[in-house]
C-alpha cells in the first residue's frame, strides 16, 4: 500500500503527496458539493516529466488516476470515485512570453484563465474564451472539457483556441506538438482528439493557444423581454445588425430574484418581465450607438439598460454571472447543461417545469444560459432523493427536442449513463475503441464520459 506513495514522494517530493484525510479533503469534493469521493492520495507534480513518472508508477501498480485542474468542473469528472490517485495539475503554472507575430502563447495546464487573460492583455491581445469561474478554472481542465462560456458566439469554444498540446498518455509517453502552425495536414489531429476527451485519453500538461485582438470598447445591454420567443427575436435582430456582437445570454425572473438577494443587487427595471437578455458588443470603437439603434428598432424590447463604462459593464454582467454562486448558496443543485436547436428552445423552456414537477413537485428549477447557442443551464434545487430521476426525465425531454445532454460542461460521471441519448451505439463503440487503444488498462479517469 505505501510502496506506491513512497515512489510518488520520490518523484514529486514528500510535500506534494497528500495522504492525510484533512489535506486531501479540498480536492475530493467538487465545487457544487454534489460529487465527492475518497482518493488514495493526492499528488501534485510540478513538471510534465513528473506527470509522466507519476503515470508510469500508477500504471505499474495498477492504480487508476483521476486528473484535476481548478476543481471547477460541474459533472464530477475531476473528483475521485474512490481509491484513485488524484493528480492535481495546479503546480504546472508557467506562462511563456506572448508570441505577438503568431498571436499565440504557450502555457502550462494549471494556469488559470484569469492569469492567461491578464498575460495576453498585457501584450495587447486577448483570449477568446471567457467564463465566470475565470479565477479558478485552469487551461488544462478547460481543454479537457472543451469549455464554452460567454464569448462562444464570437470566438468559438475552447477547441477553437487550441493550436497544439503537450500531453502524457496512460503509459507515461509524452506527446509534444506545440508549434501551432496555422496549416498542418500531417495525419491524425491529436490536439483536437484530446480536446473534450475529459482526461480519459491523456493528461494535458501544456498548450499552445491562439489569441484574439484585444477589443477595448465594449457595450452591454440588459434587456427585458416577454418570453423565450421574444428573446430569440431580439437575438435575430442583434445578429443581423450588430457586427461586433460578442455575447448573448438569457435568464429568467426566478433566477434574477435569487441573484438579487444573494448579490444584493437592485431591480434592473421598474416592472418584472418574462425573460432577460444580456447582449454584449466589443470593438475598437464604442459600439453603444449601434446597440441603442438596434434596441430602438426591435419590437421584442420591453425595457433596456445599456452601459459602456467599467463599473456599468460589471454591474450588468453580474445579473447573469452571479447565477452559479447564487444557486449554490441556495443548496446543492442538480446541474444539467444542455442545448437544443434554437427552433426548439421555447418549447423546451415551456415544458421543463412540468417535467421536473412530475418527478418531484417540491423541486425548484432555475434556468439560465447562452442564448446564442441554445445552451441552457438547468439547475434543479431541492430534488431530495430524486436527482437521478429528474436527470433522466429532463435529459429525455432534451433528446426529444433533438438536443445534446451536454453542451459545454462535459459528460463526466454525472451523465455517462445517459450518453446514448446523444450519441449512437456505433459512435460510442468507436469511442471505446479509441479509449482502449490509448488506455488499454482503463487507468485514466475511469467511469468518466463512457458508461461503465
Ligand atoms: C455559466 O455559464 O455560468 C457556467 O457554465 C456555470 C454554470 O452553469 O453554473
Ligand atoms: Zn455556461
Considering the chains and any ligands shown, give keywords for the structure:
20% strand, 36% helix, alpha+beta, Uridine Diphospho-n-acetylenolpyruvylglucosamine Reductase, domain 3, binds D-malate, single chain, binds zinc ion, Alpha-Beta Plaits, Uridine Diphospho-n-acetylenolpyruvylglucosamine Reductase, domain 2
Strand fraction equals: 15-25%
**SS-based structural class?**
alpha+beta
**What name does the CATH topology of the largest domain carry?**
Uridine Diphospho-n-acetylenolpyruvylglucosamine Reductase, domain 3
Question: Oligomerization state of this entry?
Answer: single chain
Average pLDDT works out at 97
According to DSSP, the number of beta strands is: 17
Strand order of the largest sheet: 14-11-13-12-16-17-15
Helix content: 25-40%
Unique ligands: D-malate, zinc ion
Low-confidence stretches: none
The number of domains = 4
Termini Cα gap: 26 Å
Number of helices: 16
CATH architecture of the largest domain: 2-Layer Sandwich
Basic shape: globular
How would a textbook summarize the main sheet? 7 strands, antiparallel
**Cα Rg:** 22 Å
What is the top-level CATH class of the largest domain? Alpha Beta
Amino acid at each position: 500500500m505505501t510502496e506506491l506513495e513512497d515512489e510518488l514522494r520520490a518523484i514529486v517530493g514528500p510535500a506534494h503527496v497528500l495522504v492525510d484525510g484533512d489535506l486531501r479533503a479540498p480536492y475530493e469534493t467538487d465545487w457544487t458539493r454534489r460529487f465527492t469521493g475518497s482518493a488514495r492520495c493526492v499528488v501534485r507534480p510540478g513538471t510534465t516529466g513528473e506527470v509522466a513518472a507519476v503515470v508510469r508508477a500508477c500504471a505499474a501498480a495498477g492504480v487508476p488516476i483521476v486528473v484535476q485542474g481548478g476543481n471547477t468542473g460541474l459533472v464530477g469528472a475531476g473528483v475521485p470515485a474512490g481509491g484513485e490517485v488524484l493528480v492535481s495539475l495546479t503546480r504546472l503554472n508557467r506562462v511563456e512570453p506572448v508570441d505577438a507575430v503568431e498571436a499565440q502563447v504557450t502555457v502550462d495546464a494549471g494556469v488559470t484563465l484569469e492569469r492567461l487573460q491578464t498575460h495576453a492583455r498585457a501584450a495587447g491581445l486577448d483570449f477568446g474564451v471567457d467564463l465566470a469561474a475565470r479565477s479558478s478554472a485552469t487551461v488544462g481542465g478547460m481543454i479537457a472539457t472543451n469549455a464554452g462560456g460567454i464569448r462562444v458566439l464570437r470566438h468559438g469554444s475552447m477547441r477553437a483556441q487550441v493550436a497544439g498540446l503537450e500531453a502524457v498518455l496512460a503509459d507515461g509517453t509524452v506527446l509534444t506538438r506545440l508549434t501551432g502552425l496555422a496549416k498542418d495536414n500531417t495525419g491524425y489531429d491529436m490536439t483536437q482528439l484530446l480536446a473534450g476527451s475529459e482526461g480519459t485519453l491523456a493528461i494535458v500538461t501544456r498548450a499552445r493557444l491562439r489569441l484574439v485582438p484585444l477589443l477595448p470598447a465594449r457595450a452591454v445591454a440588459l434587456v427585458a423581454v416577454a418570453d423565450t420567443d421574444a428573446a430569440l427575436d431580439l437575438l435575430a435582430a442583434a445578429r443581423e445588425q450588430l457586427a461586433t456582437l460578442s455575447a448573448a445570454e438569457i435568464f429568467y425572473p426566478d433566477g434574477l430574484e435569487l441573484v438579487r438577494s444573494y448579490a444584493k443587487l437592485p431591480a434592473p427595471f421598474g416592472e418584472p418581465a418574462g425573460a432577460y437578455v444580456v447582449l454584449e458588443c466589443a470593438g475598437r470603437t464604442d459600439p453603444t450607438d449601434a446597440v441603442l439603434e438596434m434596441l430602438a428598432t426591435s419590437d421584442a424590447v420591453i425595457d433596456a439598460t445599456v452601459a459602456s463604462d467599467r463599473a456599468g459593464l460589471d454591474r450588468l454582467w453580474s445579473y447573469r454571472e452571479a447565477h452559479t454562486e447564487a444557486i449554490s448558496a441556495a443548496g446543492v443543485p442538480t446541474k444539467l447543461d444542455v442545448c437544443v436547436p434554437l427552433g426548439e428552445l421555447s418549447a423546451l423552456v415551456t415544458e421543463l417545469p412540468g417535467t421536473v414537477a412530475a418527478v418531484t413537485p417540491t423541486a425548484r428549477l432555475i434556468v439560465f444560459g447562452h442564448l446564442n447557442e441554445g445552451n441552457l443551464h438547468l439547475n434543479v434545487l431541492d430534488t431530495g432523493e430524486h436527482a437521478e430521476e429528474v436527470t433522466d426525465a429532463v435529459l429525455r425531454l432534451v433528446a426529444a427536442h433533438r438536443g445534446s445532454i451536454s453542451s459545454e460542461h462535459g459528460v463526466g460521471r454525472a451523465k455517462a449513463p445517459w450518453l446514448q441519448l446523444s450519441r449512437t451505439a456505433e459512435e460510442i463503440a468507436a469511442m471505446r475503441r479509441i479509449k482502449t487503444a490509448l488506455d488499454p488498462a482503463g487507468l485514466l479517469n475511469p467511469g468518466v464520459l463512457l458508461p461503465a
